[in-house]
Amino acid sequence: MSRFREPRFLTSVAAPVQFPADVGAEVAFAGRSNAGKSSAINAITQRRGLARTSKTPGRTRLLNYFELAPTKRLVDLPGYGYASVPAAERGAWLPLLESLRTRESLKGLFVIVDARRGLTESDEGLIEWSPPGAHRLHVLLSKADKLNRNESAAVLRDTSTRLAGRGTVQLFSALRGIGVPEAQETLAAWLGLAPRR
Ligand code: GDP
Fold first, then answer.
1. pLDDT tens readout for residues 174-187
2. What CATH number should be reported for the domain holding residue 70?
């Protein structure tokens, strides 16, 4: 049986008034465009195609909500790292991010980072956006299948050092299934779902 019983698309949010009710628990997924975030969401929820992969960059910036169990949500943030976001779009985007950040139900943040690149400046910007007291932080070093053992150990160590206790980090590969159970259990725990027996 899959870890999350009935993952389903809930809603897209383009304006602060459109957020789902701030009850229960939710965890945000963020990462640079092409980091492997959609693939990670699909692997973790075991729903192929739940989050769409290979999107065109620069489309309208929406928060996509998925419900993994009643009042337990995953929120997919648009990929960042493309500089050419039009000013009008940025104007709509910032209040949305601010609304998300102050939600009572937001328990934590998963940051998806390409293991071959490690943490970038934009990842660190996002991490700073998230207040340490309020949100937990977990970094998935994605596409780990592309690294050998030494490279994997090095990026794990380096990321852990840079996080300096602010969060946890693990290797992950949607393609090879590396680290999927670990990511699922972290997410489930943050959402307040019972551990798998
Ligand atoms: P997003 O833009 O962050 O949502 O990234 P996607 O999930 O769309 O993936 C971006 C690219 O990376 C696609 O070409 C995927 O096939 C590839 N990719 C994603 N996950 C993995 C993985 O675990 N291993 C490898 N080798 N490639 C991956």
1. 999 999 999 999 99
2. 3.40.50.300
